[in-house]
Structure prediction request, 215 residues.
Amino acid sequence: MGMKVYGPAASTNVARVLVCLEEVDAEYELVHVDMPSGEHKNPEHLVRNPFGQVPAFQDGELILTESRAIAKYVLRKGGSQLLRECNLSESAVVNVWLEVEAAHFNSAMSPIIFQCFVVPMVMGGTPDMKIVEENLNKLKKALEVYEARLSKFKYLVGDFFSLADLSHFPTAYYLLGGPHASVIDAYPHVKAWIADIMARPSVKKVTELMKMPSV
Ligand SMILES: N[C@@H](CCC(=O)N[C@@H](CS)C(=O)NCC(=O)O)C(=O)O
Prediction:
């Protein structure tokens, strides 16, 4: 039995796992979970992810949740160098920036994506601009730190691409495709870095999947 990812590709946390599978050219099956109808809260899905969230991941007997943990498993299994595990300090810094991505970039982008995409397109509502503004301010604070870092190094950890960079792609994809894309114009190094990430073949492949509503 091959690896299985449960969730819609359009979910940022699912896309983070898919891009790692593509990086290592793994064979996998993407099992769609219909979130608008609440399939992620069904008992079968709760067995795989007790928080009723996506993604869930299965490799034989092993069931995993948490996209960044799954991403690491997939990259290790596929023998990828994106974790820099041959070098203790480099791998430590990969983990630092992966945490930064979750705590500063994703945590600001996630409510923005919810308000600007999910509320109008899935729930038929109107975005709460107070939430959007608060999180744009939070994002800008993070981007100042990123800009300083990326003025010194080509990528977040150093002059090599790592999971820390790749992990930003799903939320960056929605930032670029949403109404607040111009936010990054004030941060030229960040803008070039995001363009570089988006040009990666694995990322291009997953962004195509993200555009397909039933995948
Ligand atoms: N920390 C988790 C977050 C997972 C998560 O928030 N998934 C969202 C979709 S992007 C979800 O399932 N939301 C539905 C819910 O929480 O009920 C991860 O990285 O996998």
Observations:
- DSSP finds nine helices and four strands in the chain.
- The longest helix spans residues 88-121.
